[in-house]
Prior knowledge:
By secondary structure, the protein is an alpha+beta fold. 41% of the residues lie in helices and 18% in strands.
Amino acid sequence: MTSPSPDLALLLFFLSLFQISLFADGNSRDTTAFQPTCFLASLLGNHALSRGHKANIVVKSFALCESPRSSKTSLEGQNDSSPNIINKDIIEDDQIKTLENKAPSDKIVQYPLQTGEGCRSSGIPTNPPLPLPLPNIASRGRRKSHRGNLHNIRRNLDTTFALSYCSTAPLEKRNDFSPPIVEDDELLVTQTDAQRNTIVQSQLHVDGICCSSEIPTINSIVTPLRGVNKISINVTTKIVYVDHDKSLISVEEIEKKLNLCNFRATVQKDGENPLGKKEELHNSDRKNKREFLAKSSVALSGVFWTISMMSYIPRWHNAQYFALGSVLFGFPPIALKAINTLRCKRTDANCLMFFAVVGALILREFTEAAAVSFLFSIGDILERRATRKARDALSEIVSIRPEVANVIDDATNGVSIISAEGVSPGHRLLVRPGEKIPCDGVVLKGVSVVDECSLTGESRPTKKLPNSNLSGGTINVGTSPLVMIATATIENSAAARLIRMVEQAQANRSPTEKLVDRFSKLYTPVVGLSAFLMCTIPWMFGKDLGKRWFLIGLTTTIVACPCALIISTPVTYVAGLAALAKRGVIVKGGAHLEALGRVGKVALDKTGTLTQGKFKLLHLDVVGSKYSRKEILGMVAALEGPSVHPLANALFQAAQNEGTEVSAINNVEEHTIVKGEGVHAYLDGKKVYIGNRRLFTRINMYSKLDSSVKEKVDHWSELGGTVGYVGVEGVGIVAAYCAADEVRTEAQNVVEELKESGIAVSMLTGDSTSAAIAVGKQVGLPYNSIQAELLPEEKLNLVQEMKVGTTKDTSFLCSKKKRDFVLMCGDGINDSPALASADVGVAMGAGSTLALETSDVTLVDNNLDKLLKSILMGRKVIRTIKQNIAISMLSKLAVFMLVAFKGANLWFAIASDVGAMLIVTLNGMKLLPKSRKLHNAPFNQFIV
């Protein structure tokens, strides 16, 4: 049978392109050109520009030019149109005001400068690096200073702008200046309060995000916009966070720019839940219809492609034309995405597939074109479906957010239903069986059991009695109602904190993700250029040779697609973060999850970490006869009442248990907490001290203490107790006390398993040496692994010493030492500096707010066993990423080898690419628990 005319193929191809309009929104690209503007920069602004800093600054100076097109100003100021240069060695603030008053009003200008990659709105490219450091240029924080001359030259658009308040010595001579320092705060660079108040962070839900390959395209759209300072993208929740100056660009304008490239962006209003918004869009009729059409098109494409494969059967050659039907249904979505990407002046996998399909059609390789269209489309759908599993796992966490609350009216005891956002501290609430607890609070009445698995991952419900603490988002699964009093709003509840941490976890990209992105940006252009040369140069040596190499070039184009490599890391991080989050371990981003897998040293705090942090007062011995036991307990209650330290709470509770009046708290003045030592304050005119031996040694009271009292206190300490003293200025030490804290039941097992995993474990505590050694014996830590009586600064210094030689900003793929990171785990304010300094800071969930803020990982339910599981999960994530990268690279290498030996065609290349993409996706998803009810699965089922 004769082959149909090529016109039929072209007709079907154009019909396919016409179908693209069915998918598009019909928005036209904004072609408004930016007009060049006068760009005047100081040396400091220029330096920030060359270093890539991003900030909004205002340069205030005398105008040296009317406009970039009307005048030129030379370095020496010899141009007739330029104003005279003011030659002064030093200009004081009052002289500046005088100069401003004398200068013509039209010569005083303020230029807002957007530093970063040059001023895009003015069309002026980035400055070349200046010869820095310059002599006599100093930096103190954000304040810059210089001695005498400050001169900056910028030659662009055939215009030279000069800024000088002093003499015109050329910058290139790098002269040494001798005049006194002149601060730049008001002289050169200022930023008004109004401008600072216009910097806001907006959120956009971008439904067009399917994987991390869209990140470069979105960055290229949003980052160049005037007024945009910073952008971060959460692929999991499909949220784009944009820091921008609302006086220069509104969030609606940013939304419009994204929608011009068909990203389907919507502004995220304040108070809306991003993941909830995702679910709302996911269940909408519009999205369901779009997904149905997409799946139907892919299915029809597969049917036609399968029929076209019959063309390899003898005398069924004409079946190849069914492949055009496959292209008709499978190609339009690819072409649409490619066109949108090209409109943004970028290339991606869709562009490569677009060129491969068009090239195959030109060569009349219809079956090959159909294979590319169908296999790439089906791979895209399957990859989206697999990735959605991890996204849904994180979405389940957000579902713990309560919607309504039952408020009890104090006057009538009636119950009214209000929005959970309307609950305030002090409200009495009724929680019926089966209802969610709307916010954090305390039980007033009733006995029931509460399911806290959504926060802690524990499958067994917890019994709640009067005075028991309740966490928002947990569920009353008992048979009795609970009456509670709210202690926090829903925004400050444990559930809200958990949701915020989960939502922001993806913003912090790991070094490995960045390395893979950099490699893919180099890999794709190099291979793409090679494919282009293969498709063009051989035509010079003959038609047959050109056609053969053209097909090889198209196959190489498929190989240039980096999809499998790009998604090999983010999908693994998402699965790991979701798995840990479902078990009550919140990791603030993939970078910290990777760092967990590289931990080689662990430093543990004692109180509240190795121990339960629930002290009980064992001894309180009065020293001397100046004050009675009751009076001393009154001092203790007054000073320790405002503190949140576990030991302070124990002392305060013991005073209350003995009937001590706590009204003396109102008489406390100048209450001061001394980190690592204790507390002191004025009580009824007397200065009272409560703390450890270090405090009383510093104030010269301990040396005056009777030796028998010292021996008794030392004996308490040797038995493992935490000891301290109470003193009064002018009197001395008036009491000694001993409190005990129980070691966590899982602490010994965790320490042993950490050691077996090759991790060096140490204890850093501010408690006494004897108390630390006693706890160390119980958990299996030798004496040389214990550092006691440490101040917060000393803890910080020890952590920094342990970090010597670590490479936190380097991917594990490039690091020689695979496990050299330092992990610090603590719960108190005293631990915050060390937590922030460590490569990985882990905070216990019941710890101080500052500790939670400065940490990278949070153990929601204070179970130390989960610290070990988190490290093991980090290691498994690293192993999985290595496997994924190896799979993606080996699949490319295999196709390259087959191309070299002329054994690969288009459909094999695309099948290899899609297969590798699916394999790495599924390999990463295996980190998720297999059970549908994740909170009922044992934690160790997904830890190898």
